[in-house]
């Protein structure tokens, strides 16, 4: 019984961790107005981010922040962020399911 209970608890704890997306980044609010919390763009001209490759997002964010991609809105949004914060955002968006393409 003890073993069963332990196994049940272990399962209950591990399954959501495996299935769940990464924790919502503290800085997501900086991005949501344009890219959405769900990674689907909210304004014309902003790209969808949901399901984009992790490495690509991570590198793109560093490029904007460091000015290697010179886009003022993105530079302003990423300017105050640390590498760790950019990584959290990249992980968040890459873990989302992309919207279905229009037929
Ligand atoms: C004011 C609107 C706005 C805000 C706020 C904003 N972005 Fe953007 N973002 C854009 C636009 C516009 C582009 C396209 C820029 C370009 O042409 O390179 C872009 C591009 C990107 C790209 C590159 C996508 C690609 O396919 O190359 C990433 C990644 C990204 N944004 C992430 C973020 C994150 C993360 C935040 C929050 C820290 C954020 N953005 C905040 C408007 C915004």
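Q: What amino acid sequence fits the structure above?
A:
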């Amino acid at each position: 019984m003890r073993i069963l209970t332990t196994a049940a608890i272990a399962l209950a704890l591990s399954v959501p961790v495996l299935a769940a997306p990464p924790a919502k980044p503290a800085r997501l609010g900086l991005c949501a107005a344009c890219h959405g919390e769900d990674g689907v763009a909210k304004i014309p001209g902003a790209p969808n981010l949901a399901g984009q490759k992790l490495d690509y997002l991570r590198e793109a964010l560093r490029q904007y922040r460091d000015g290697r991609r010179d886009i003022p809105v993105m530079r302003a949004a990423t300017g105050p962020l640390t590498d760790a914060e950019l990584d959290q955002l990249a992980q968040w968006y890459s873990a989302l399911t992309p919207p279905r393409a229009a037929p």
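Q: And what stands out in the fold?
A: Residues 23-95 form a domain with the Cytochrome Bc1 Complex; Chain D, domain 2 fold (CATH 1.10.760.10).
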